[in-house]
Amino acid sequence: MQQYSSLPEQNCQIDATPTLLTTIQQLRAELWLESSLNQLQSDFNDCLLSACTTLPQQRSSEAEIFQILVNDLNHALNSSKVAIALFQPQEITGKVCYVSPSPERHSQLPHLEAVSKKGRKLRLKLDEPIELEDLQHLEHQETPSAWQLSDDSGGMIAWLIIATAPKRLDGDSAKGLEAQMKTQLVARAVKYCNVALAKLRQFQSCQQKSQYLSSSNRELERTNQLKNQFLANTSHEIRTPLSSIIGFTHLLLAQGYDPTKDRHQEYLNIIQSSGKHLLALINDILDLSKIEANQLEVEWGIVNVPTLCRNVMALVKEKAANKGLKLLFDIDPNVTTLVADSLRLKQMLLNLLFNALKFTTTGSVGLRVVAKGSFVHFTVWDTGTGISQADQAQLFQPYFQIANSTVARHEGTGLGLAVTRKLAEIHGGSVEVESEVNRGSRFTIVLPLNPVGDLEGIEGEVADLSSLPPIVHAPSSFIEILLVENDLNNAKLMQIYLEKLGYQVTWAKNAAEMWESLQNINPAVILMDVNLPDDNGLNLVRQLRENQQYSQTPVIAQTAMAMSGDRETCLAAGINDYISKPIDLPLLASLVAKYSNSE
Fold first, then answer.
1. Cβ(589)–Cβ(494) below 8 Å
2. Could you say which of 139, 156, 163, 460 is the most buried, measured as most Cβ atoms within 10 Å of its Cβ?
3. Helix 175-255 to helix 9-53 angle, to the nearest 10 degrees?
C-alpha cells in the first residue's frame, strides 16, 4: 500500500497557533469595537428621538449627548477616568463639566488625574478649571489622552479626556492591538458625538423656526381677529351717531326749520352732540394711524394747567351728573404751567375721565394733579368696577375692550387708552395704571415739565352730510308699533318720525321693557335693535318665534351691524327684514307700511 507523508502534528501546532490566536484576538477586538460603537450610536439615536418626540420641557439637550459619550466610553474601556471639559469661545481656560460614572451627589465625585504639559497632575473633577495648553499637550502625545469635540463649523467647543489607558483585552500580547482599538474607538466615538450634536442643533434650529412661525401665525390670527372686531365695533360706533345726524337733519328739512320752535332746537342739539361723538371716534382712529406711522404732529406751547384741567372737568360735568356721580378735582398749587400740546393733553385727560365715568355706576370720579420732581402726575381715579390683572395686561393694546355688564356692548372703539399712552410717550412721559376688581381704578399720566420735542400742529377734515328724501304719506288707520332701541337719540328719532306718519309707537330701551310692553299691547310690527344692554336682539327674536302669540308678528331689525353676512345672520334668526344704521327714514316707513299692511 502506498504511503503518504504529512507534517508532524507538533509542527502544525507550532506554526498554526500564533496565527490562530492573533486572528481570535483581532476578531474579539473588532467585535468589541463594533459592539461598543453600536451601543453608543444607539444611545445617541434614542437621545435624538427623545428630542424630536417629547414635550419641550422634557427634550434632550447637548448635556445629555456629552453624558452619553462619557458613560458609554467609560463602560467600553472599563475605566472611570473619562471626562469632558467645556470651553467658551476665545477662552484659554475651560471647566470640567462631565465625568463618569456620573454620581448622584457631588460629595461622591471621583478625582480624575492626567499629566499636564509641565509634568504636573491635572485634577479632573467637576467644576475644576483646566488650561487649553494642557489639553493640546495631551492631544499630541504618542498615545493621545484628549480629543476635540467641534461644532458645525469646525470650531472647538469641548474636549474629551481619558486620563488612563484601558485594561488589556487579553494578556500582554494584546497590548498593541488594544491601544490600536482604543484609538479607533475614541476617534469614531468623537465623530459620532459631533454628528449627534450637529443633528441636535439642526433639530433645535428647526424647532425654533417652527415655534417662531407658529407664534407668528398665532399673532397674525389674533391681529386678524382684532381687525375684524375693530371693523365691527367701529361700524357700530360710527353708524349710531350718523343715524341721529342724518335722521334729525331730514326732519328739519322736511318740516322747514323754525328757530322759534323748541323742538327744532332740541333736534339741533342732538345733531351737534352726535356730530361731536362721531368726530371723536374718527379722530381716535386717525390719531392711532398717524402715531404708528410716526406722522402725528404736536404743537408745543406753555399750557396753563389749572385752566386746562377746569375746562376738561366742565366738559364731563354733565355726564357725571346724569349718572349721579360726584366729580372731584384737586390740584397742587405748585403746578402752574407745563410745556405740552394743550389739545393733546386735553384729549388724554378726557379719554381717561370718560372711561372712568363709563365704568362707574355709584360713588365718584376725580382728577388729581401733583408735581413730583421734574414731572407732573395727572391721576384720574374712580370707584367703579375695577380691572382684572388679565385685562390690565392687554389694556393698552389697540382695539381691546373690557367686557363689562355695566356698559353697553361695543361702546367705544377700544382705541382711547392706546392713543393716550402713545400721546404721553410722544410728550416724553408714560401712563400708569393701578386697579382692583370692584375697588376702582387709578390711571396716571406722567409728563415732564419740559419735554424734548419740536413738532408742529395737526390738520383735520370734516365731511359734508347730505339730506334724505321727503317724508312718505301717513297710514290710513291706527297701527301699534313696538320700538326696541337702546340708543336714546335713535329711539327718539324713529318714534317722532313714525308718530308723524300716524303710527302709535311704544318705546322699550331693553329686553325687560320689551316683555313688559308686550303684556299691554299687541303690536303690528316690532322694530328690534340687535345690540341691547341686557340681551341680544337676535336671541329675543328667537324667543318671540317660539311663543305662539308672536310667532307670526313681523320683526324688522334696525342695527349698526353692517358687515358682510350680518343681514343673513339676522334673517336666519327669524327676522322678517333688516335696515342698517344710519336709518334711512323713508325706507323705514316703507318697511313698516309693508309689514303692518298699512300701505
1. no
2. 163
3. 10
